[in-house]
Amino acid sequence: MEPAQAQDGSWADVVADGRLPLFALICLGVWLGAADSLVTATIMPSVGADLGGYAYFGWATAGYLLGSVMAGASSGLLARRFGLRRATACAALLYAAGCALSAAGPDMASFLIGRLLQGIGGGWVTGFCSVAIGLLFPNRLLPRVYAAITGVWGIASLVGPMIGGIFADLGVWRWVFWFFAIQAVAVAGAAFVMLPKGDNGDQGQGVAWGQLGLIAGGVVAIGAADVAGTFGRSAGLTLVGVVLLLAMVWLDERAVVRLLPKGSGSLRTIPGSGYATMFLLTAASMGFSIYGPAILQQLAGLSALTAGYVIAGEAAAWTLAGLAVAHLTGRWPGRMILTGAVCATAGIGVSALVFPTGSVLGIVLAGAALGAGFGLSWAFMSQAILAALPDEERAIGAAAMTTVRLTGSAAGAALAAAVANLVGFSHGLSDATARSAGVWVFAAALPVALAGLWTARRLASYRAESA
């Protein structure tokens, strides 16, 4: 039990007692994953022109996402088995190798293999950072630590497109990956210096092959839904993917070697309702970032860079809201969880109204509500989950947050793609298809968000009862 006078924590306390180097390392590790997708999205037209791979834009993202989900799901287990220091350093070096392959590869096949390796290495780095937060920072500091991580994502959303744009405009897109490879090598070296040595890990710890196989099958099915060709096939593959992911949760509850904390499959527990809220709200939000820029360019006549920064306002709102409430304690965290879910759901509902009109101001406001919803609630959801776990499960509990976020992203992307393709988006972008996608992508996501609001209410209630 932490002393009463230390419950509030402070920013000075976050970096006290020698934690500053560790905190800096975690932020740098999170930066790699946060900036990667934003930078890559900006340079993909140049990649396609050089390597002749316009048809594989989706697979450049899908391959990275598949690697990230698999890695994130196993990061807690591997941290226990090999030790946090060695695991983080090796993951960063694998990410660097993937960057080097994407940078030097002569064709699209080698580029996509490099993206898969980046996803695996980057997913592990992000997952190990989550494990480090859960193990090495006391509970009173978690809202501020997660607020800082939110700030890293906000910075990446603002700086990432600019970095990619500069390299693309100069005609040297390959340098982007060399740039990130150098940073990954720096993370690997810093991990050996800054992370505690610990022991050699639990060499007897088994590997949850059954759960990992179900996750892989689920993510592959969801990813294939994007290119299935018809709405029926897309919906069917998405359903198969969701069923496989639910089967993984069921199996994990009964397995000897688990990927998720005990009770994660039940909405009657804090971890179960917390993970469900994270998954549902993340999935519901994906249409904003995936289809928002294209709709803005078509209906509002914005340039790609300007549209990107309009959509990035969501991340800025997430960052500002997260920093504004990080100091709250007592009953406020539970209130922020519920308030955040309400704001995020409202942002999705408003998006269905303003995107078809091409109103830049309306879209900015919708993105602000959506981002602020996550900023108000995410750190407190994470804190509630970790506080409800015994010490021996904090590592896998922290790593599971990465898995939940990534699988939610995959499911949400597939849902948005299936709906957009149904209204003709895949046949070409016009005013009519942009307006239809602007309505139905968000209308289809609204029930998912409402389900997330319901689980958030349960989480806030359970947290209040346990306080």
How would you describe this structure to a colleague?
Helix content is 79%, strand content 0%. With 467 residues, it is mainly α. It has 15 helices and no strands. α3 runs parallel beside α5 (108-136), α6 packs across α13 (360-387) and α9 (231-254) packs antiparallel against α14.
Q: What Rg is obtained from the alpha carbons, in whole angstroms?
A: 21 Å
Q: What is the CA-CA span between the terminal residues?
A: 13 Å
Largest sheet: none
Count every beta strand, where a strand is a DSSP E run of 2 or more residues.
0
| Uncertain spans | 1-7
Task: Please give a quick description of this structure.
The chain is an all-alpha fold and 467 residues long. It is 79% helix and 0% strand.
Explain the layout of strands and helices.
Elements: H1 11-14, H2 20-51, H3 57-82, H4 84-104, H5 108-136, H6 142-169, H7 174-194, H8 209-225, H9 231-254, H10 270-299, H11 304-325, H12 332-354, H13 360-387, H14 394-422, H15 431-466
Helix pairs in contact: 2-5, 2-6, 2-7, 3-4, 3-5, 3-8, 3-14, 4-5, 4-7, 5-14, 6-11, 6-13, 8-9, 8-14, 9-14, 10-11, 10-12, 10-13, 10-14, 10-15, 11-13, 12-13, 12-15, 14-15
Domain Major facilitator superfamily (MFS) profile: 22-461
GO cellular component, one term: plasma membrane
Transmembrane segments: 20-44, 56-79, 86-104, 116-138, 145-163, 175-195, 207-225, 231-251, 272-296, 302-325, 337-355, 361-381, 402-425, 437-456
Which descriptors would you attach to this protein?
mainly alpha, MFS transporter, MFS_dom, transmembrane, transmembrane helix, globular, membrane
